[in-house]
Amino acid sequence: MNMEAPVPFPAGQGGLEQVAFDRRELSLILRLYGQMVAAGEWRDYGLSHGREAATFAVFRRTAEVPLYRIEKRPKLRGKQGIYAVLGAAGQVLRRGHDLAAVLKVLERKLIRPVD
């Protein structure tokens, strides 16, 4: 039986780096998600990480297209902003460099007039 030490994967080879949300970003997004679930607006979410972008998609029902997508695209850091909120049809609702400010477009959906 061969009992050699395992060889770790070489660091930095293959170019398979992925964009991901960090803990602070996920905390902001999941706080908003929890509020919207409590309000009955959202029911499910999906999270994906790729080379170009990380996406947090929210759904009213699992089988539907996402109501909104929160994207992080580091390549846009010097341009419009790294974060964006997109609507169901792909329209950009808000874009910017500060995630908390970008998410305010969705927080406004929680404010309802009292009869």
Name the beta content range: 15-25%
Q: Share of helix among residues?
A: 10-25%
Q: What is the count of helical runs?
A: 2
User: Largest sheet, if any?
Assistant: 5 strands, antiparallel
Look at the helices and sheets and give the structural class: alpha+beta
| Sheet with most strands: strand arrangement | 1-2-3-4-5
Shape, per Cα inertia axes: globular
Report the end-to-end length measured between terminal Cα atoms.
76 Å
pLDDT averaged residue by residue: 83
What is the element string, with H for helices and E for strands? HEEEEEH
Q: What's the domain count?
A: 1
Low-confidence stretches: none
User: Compute the gyration radius: what is it?
Assistant: 18 Å
How many strands? 5
Task: List the defining traits of the structure above.
115 residues; alpha+beta; 5 strands
Give your account of this protein's structure:
The chain has 115 residues and is an alpha+beta fold. The chain has one domain (23-108). It is 22% helix and 23% strand. It contains two helices and five strands. The protein has helices at 23-38, 99-107, and strands spanning 44-49, 54-59, 68-72, 83-86, 92-96. Strands 1-2-3-4-5 form a five-stranded antiparallel β-sheet. A hairpin with a 5-residue loop joins β4 (83-86) and β5. It is globular and about 60 Å long. It starts with 22 loop residues before the first helix and ends in an 8-residue tail after the last helix. The mean pLDDT is 83.
